[in-house]
Every structure is written in structure tokens, then in C-alpha cells.
């Protein structure tokens, strides 16, 4: 997964006997994606890098495309994020949400997920109502959403609202369902859409933002089971019910007086938490899902994914994955194909609902965003 480090590492670090000679300020002249501490380390690393150089050069050419968003708030480029520390903190401070409510895990200053015992479903936006979706939308969707601009227009949000920084979680889930061609309103006789959500991390401190799924899938009961090593042991097996949107900062807003309807046709969201890895906890989970989703998966980086991919292949459930950068998605696709013997069912593509602030990557200069690329098996 992406690192929050602000300094690039030498691409040959750990692969050569000689220690690095200072910072990695020498970039590859062909792709510009990797950096080295010295000419000697660059020369030694070429035997490995030559296999990926052209591919990384192509990925580097996508920087401008990936950084295109409709928002009017400042979005730093990946290169700038390497040069200036704590850019996320500065960004959050500009909206007065740094370390507050739903935003407290959006920078390095926030708490470690593994140490958090209180995964609150009552955390708030800490913004005025005009900047966040704290109530029902004014109208239902007439067509599937395909961009942040369409979503903001539907939710009557101004383009200077930073809400997308958090809403990329539920909107990415929404997009996964669209790509999987799952008809949410026809999942079963009880209109229950069941999703297994693999590897949650900081989402665990932002669970109330998933209430936006109530607006995206009106009249549907959603049951999402989140399983991952970062789920606190004390919360293993816990069920959380969400029936209203995260609150804005206004004490007088109607979002604070909302009472869930008892109408059986109203939307409802049930979250269930499981600690552990999916292939070990699958038998403990309630039922076969309609879809498996693994955000920012890092498939090629973690060996524990191998038995999970094999199990997903055997049970035959559609699975969607996202990752921070195109290279991680490419390596993941190779991993999936080597295990399943099949090409991806949903090819690698840019996620229109990726987080609109770049992530730092200490290993590569290629553009990285949370939930940036999406693909499926």
C-alpha cells in the first residue's frame, strides 16, 4: 500500500551490499518514476528496472489525466507532496477539520487504527450543511453517476466542498456495483444487498460516511461485512446499524432530528466487523455475498492475499479491487491471472471516484490516489 513518507527511497535500497549514499535525488532519465542515491546504485538496479522502465514511463504520462478533478479547492501534485511535508494537514486545517470528527484519520497526526477501540458511528462532518450530504437528496437518481461533478450536482454540493475526500469510500463501492452490473434492487426477495468488504483500515474511523449508500440505493437494505486484521479484537463480530446520514456542524439542522422510518421499504445499512483475513474468517460470516470488494488492496505486496484469491476463485463470487497506482494494479492483475489462469473480468481502469488528493509514495514518483485504479475478477 501507499506510504505517507515524504522522502523518496533509493530504488536499489536493500538490493545491493553498499549502503545508500544520502538521499535519492537522481531520477531515471527514461521513465522518471524511480530515484537513486548514486549513479552506482542506478547502474546496479538497471538489470531489474529495465523490465519495468517503459511501463512506468507510460504510467508517468498519465499524471495530468489523474489529477483532473472538477473541484476548486487546492489539490497538490504527487511531486509536490514529496517536497513539502504534511500537505494533508495543511489542507485539512484550511477547512478547520484537522483531527476532527470523520477527518481525524486523514493525516499522519491521527490515531493508529489498530489502537482505536471506539469505532464510532456518530462521528460528524464538522462542516456546515451546505458543504456535506447530511440529509436526503432533493431528488432520486435518473441515471447512474459517472463522475464527481455529476455526484456534486445531484447532491447540490458546491465544488469547493472537500466532502469527496471522505466520500470516495462509498462512491467507489457504488462504482464497483455498477461495473459488476449487479442490480441492487433485485438482489433477493428481501431487497438485501450483501457485500463482503476486505481489508478496511482508516475507513474504520469513517464508517458514518457509508450512510451515503442510503441515498445511492434507496429502498434497499445493505449488509456490509468488513473483515481485516485492523479490526480491533474487542469489536470482532459486532453489528452496527446506520439509518441516518452523518451530521453537519449546525445544531439546528434537521439532520440532528432525523428519525429512521419504520417503513419496510426505507433504506437501512448494517455493518458487521470481523477481525482477521478473509480466507480464514469466511466460514464465520453470515452468508454468501453478491459482491466482494477490496479497496486499496495491494495484492502483490501481501502474501496473505494468495489463499484469499484462490478461495474467491473457488466460490465464484464477483470480486472488485482498487489500488493506489497503476503499477500496483498491474502487479495485482498478474497475481490474479497466475492464480486463476484467467484474465481479469473487469480490466484495469481509472476510478472516477478516486480520492481527489494525491498520496505520497516513497518508492515511486508515479501518481497515487486512494482507490485510484479499479479492476475485477
Protein architecture, described:
Pfam families: MSS51_C, zf-MYND. This is MYND-type domain-containing protein. Keywords: Metal-binding, Zinc, Zinc-finger. InterPro entries: Mss51-like_C, Znf_MYND. Strand 1 (26-27) and strand 2 form a beta hairpin. The protein is an alpha/beta fold and 377 residues long. The protein has helices at residues 39-49, 53-60, 63-66, 78-83, 87-94, 148-154, 164-179, 212-216, 278-281, 305-315, 326-340, and strands at residues 26-27, 35-36, 192-198, 221-228, 239-242, 268-275, 291-294, 319-323, 346-350, 373-376. It has eleven helices and ten strands. It has two domains: 1-61, no CATH class; 67-253 and 264-376, no CATH class. Residues 1-6, 77-84 and 259-265 have low confidence and may be disordered. The strands form two sheets. The chain has an eight-stranded mixed beta sheet. Strands 1-2 form a two-stranded antiparallel ribbon. 25% of the residues lie in helices and 13% in strands. The relative contact order is 0.16.
What is the fold's blueprint, element by element?
Blueprint: E1 26-27, E2 35-36, H1 39-49, H2 53-60, H3 63-66, H4 78-83, H5 87-94, H6 148-154, H7 164-179, E3 192-198, H8 212-216, E4 221-228, E5 239-242, E6 268-275, H9 278-281, E7 291-294, H10 305-315, E8 319-323, H11 326-340, E9 346-350, E10 373-376
Parallel strand pairs: 3-4, 3-7, 4-6, 7-8
Antiparallel strand pairs: 1-2, 5-6, 8-10, 9-10
Unreliable stretches, pLDDT < 50, 5 or more residues? 1-6, 77-84, 259-265
Radius of gyration: 21 Å
The backbone outline, from C-alpha atoms, is globular
| Helix-residue proportion | 25-40%
Structural class: alpha/beta
Q: Tell me the total number of β-strands.
A: 10
Distance between the termini: 20 Å
Taken in chain order, the helices and strands follow as: EEHHHHHHHEHEEEHEHEHEE
Strand content: 5-15%
Count of domain modules: 2
Q: How are the strands of the largest sheet arranged?
A: 5-6-4-3-7-8-10-9
Largest sheet: 8 strands, mixed
Number of helices: 11
Name the average pLDDT.
Answer: 87
Amino acid at each position: 500500500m501507499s506510504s505517507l513518507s515524504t522522502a523518496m527511497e533509493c530504488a536499489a535500497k536493500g538490493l545491493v551490499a553498499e549502503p545508500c549514499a544520502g538521499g535519492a535525488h537522481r531520477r531515471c532519465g527514461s521513465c522518471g518514476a524511480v530515484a537513486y542515491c548514486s549513479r552506482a546504485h542506478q547502474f546496479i538496479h538497471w538489470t531489474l528496472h529495465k523490465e519495468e522502465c517503459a511501463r512506468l514511463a507510460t504510467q508517468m504520462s498519465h499524471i495530468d489525466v489523474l489529477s483532473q478533478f472538477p473541484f476548486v479547492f487546492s489539490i497538490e501534485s504527487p511531486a509536490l507532496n514529496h517536497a513539502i511535508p504534511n500537505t494533508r494537514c495543511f489542507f485539512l486545517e484550511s477547512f478547520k477539520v484537522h483531527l476532527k470528527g470523520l477527518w481525524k484519520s486523514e493525516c499522519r497526526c491521527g490515531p493508529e487504527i489498530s489502537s482505536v477501540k471506539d469505532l464510532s458511528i456518530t462521528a460528524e462532518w464538522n462542516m456546515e450543511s451546505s458543504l456535506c450530504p447530511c440529509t436526503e437528496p432533493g431528488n432520486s437518481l435518473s441515471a447512474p453517476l459517472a463522475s464527481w461533478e455529476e455526484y456534486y450536482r445531484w447532491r447540490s454540493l458546491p465544488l469547493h466542498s472537500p466532502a469527496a475526500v471522505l466520500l470516495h469510500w462509498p462512491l467507489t463501492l457504488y462504482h464497483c456495483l455498477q461495473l459488476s452490473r449487479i442490480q441492487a434492487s433485485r438482489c433477493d426477495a428481501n431487497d438485501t444487498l450483501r457485500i463482503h468488504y476486505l481489508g478496511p483500515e482508516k475507513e474504520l474511523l469513517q464508517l458514518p460516511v457509508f450512510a451515503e449508500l442510503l441515498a445511492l440505493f434507496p429502498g434497499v437494505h445493505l449488509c456490509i461485512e468488513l473483515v481485516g486484521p485492523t479490526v480491533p479484537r474487542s469489536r470482532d463480530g459486532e453489528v452496527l446499524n446506520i439509518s441516518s446520514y452523518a451530521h453537519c456542524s449546525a445544531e439546528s439542522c434537521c439532520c440532528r432530528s432525523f428519525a429512521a422510518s419504520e417503513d419496510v421499504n426505507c433504506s437501512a445499512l448494517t455493518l458487521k466487523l470481523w477481525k482477521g483475513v478473509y480466507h480464514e474468517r469466511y466460514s464465520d460470516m453470515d452468508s454468501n455475498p453478491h459482491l466482494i470488494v477490496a479497496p486499496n488492496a495491494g495484492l502483490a505486496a501481501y502474501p496473505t492475499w494468495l489463499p484469499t484469491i484462490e478461495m474467491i476463485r473457488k466460490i465464484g463470487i464477483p470480486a472488485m479491487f482498487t489500488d493506489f497506482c497503476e503499477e500496483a494494479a498491474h502487479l495485482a492483475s498478474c497475481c490474479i491471472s497466475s492464480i486463476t489462469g484467467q484474465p481479469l473480468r473487469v480490466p484495469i481502469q481509472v476510478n472516477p471516484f478516486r480520492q481527489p488528493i494525491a498520496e505520497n509514495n516513497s518508492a515511486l514518483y508515479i501518481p497515487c490516489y486512494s482507490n485510484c485504479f479499479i479492476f475485477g475478477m
